[in-house]
Amino acid sequence: MTSALSGLRERARKNLDPVHYDFFAGGAGEEVALAENERAFHALALLPRVLRGAAERDLRVTLPGARASLPVIVSPTAFHRLAHPDGELATARAVAAADTVLVTGVASTIAVGEVTAAARAVRDEASVWFQLYLHPEQDVTTALVRRAERAGCSALVVTVDSPVFGRRERDRRNGFHDLPPGLAAENMRDLPGAAPGKPLDIAMSPALSWDHLRRLRDVTALPVVLKGVLHPEDAALAVTEGVDALLVSNHGGRQLDAAPATVEALPAVVSAVAGRVPVLLDGGVRGGSDVAKALALGATAVGIGRPVLWGLAAEGAQGVRQVLELLRAEFDNVLALCGGRSPADLTRDLVVARATAATAAWGTSVGPQAVRAGEGSMPW
Ligand SMILES: Cc1cc2nc3c(=O)[nH]c(=O)nc-3n(C[C@H](O)[C@H](O)[C@H](O)COP(=O)(O)O)c2cc1C
Ligand SMILES: CC(C)CC(=O)C(=O)O
């Protein structure tokens, strides 16, 4: 993590109630997956190409229902008003100003219609996607989808890595179970089964199956991004089921602690999808070179979770904007250093396992590992 980003995190830590800091920062279990997401990026190196004439660079990418000015979008994170009084409104303004996609979540402390309005006040065509969990009762899911459609969201992000809630030790230790008075999951109000004036609980259900996803697709024409896929067989199934994109994610290490680092799971998913839909990744992206590594391994874009929360808690909308501009500048710099003009120039042969990077470049004994990576085998 660069000093600018860790500086924001430290300022966020100072501003936040320690219990809320732990909620944002923490993971499940022993926080192995949380740590692995970042470690796995460090374990990879980029093998740059030279003399490729990369004076003019274009960072834009096309995604379902959206275009983004850089291949970094904002993943859904809960309860932004714990980080800053303006909460998701501040996040929405900053993300729209940076001209990328905001994935606003069902666990937002501001209703989705107000979030999209704040984004559109900054940029007419601002892209906002809506993240939801499938509810076992179809009428609740449908009501959430209608809410997102009315708000003008251009895709649905369906999180499927949460059949049950991960065991978050920090939250248990801190006794953090409820939002402070005055804050609520605003999108959960006025849903079928909700008591008047009271938000419904966000359901996480182990009973969900592909049938529930089919029922969702029956009630909406919005593109669907499936979030939390790690197994290549699930990726292939999802494509067969007609999803419009996949987001490789382990929920920032907050669900299955034994899950692999996302950048390590990415190549097999990319291979299973075989170019049929875009594949995105989140988890542990902290700098421009992480973005470049994920793209070289086949991601169309990456999402960031905690860095946005650090920016928001440190400085509100300004802080979120700072995080996105930092990543834009770093990614552009790395792209140039790799001799690339656009994200498409970041190809798989540019990624090698760090332990073998030098020997791969020399073409000696370990070299073929990196060379074969370009042909579909794993470089680690
Ligand atoms: C505080 C917090 C809350 C989150 N809330 C949600 C959520 O409501 N829905 C969801 O799909 N993912 C949620 N996530 C996971 C993020 O969307 C994303 O997968 C993860 O944060 C990416 O990892 P990173 O924080 O290392 O960038 C949350 C993550 C954090 C840190
Ligand atoms: C409270 C949850 C709905 C959000 C969260 O913390 C998570 O998904 O990690």
From TrEMBL:
MF term (GO), any: FMN binding
The FMN hydroxy acid dehydrogenase domain extends over 1-356
> Where does this protein hold glyoxylate?
133, 168, 251, 254
UniProt entry keywords in alphabetical sequence:
Flavoprotein, FMN, Oxidoreductase
Task: Extract the Pfam families matched here.
Answer: FMN_dh
Cofactors required:
FMN
Annotated residues that bind FMN are located at 76-78, 131, 159, 227, 249, 282-286, 305-306
Specify the domain of life of the species encoding this protein: Bacteria
The active site annotation covers 251
Determine if Oxidoreductase is one of this entry's keywords.
yes
Does this UniProt record's set of keywords contain Flavoprotein?
Answer: yes
The terms describing its cellular component in GO are: cytoplasm
Record's PANTHER family? 2-HYDROXYACID OXIDASE 1, S -2-HYDROXY-ACID OXIDASE-RELATED
- Which family does the similarity line name? Belongs to the FMN-dependent alpha-hydroxy acid dehydrogenase family.
- What is the protein's name according to its record? Alpha-hydroxy-acid oxidizing protein
Specify the species. Actinacidiphila oryziradicis
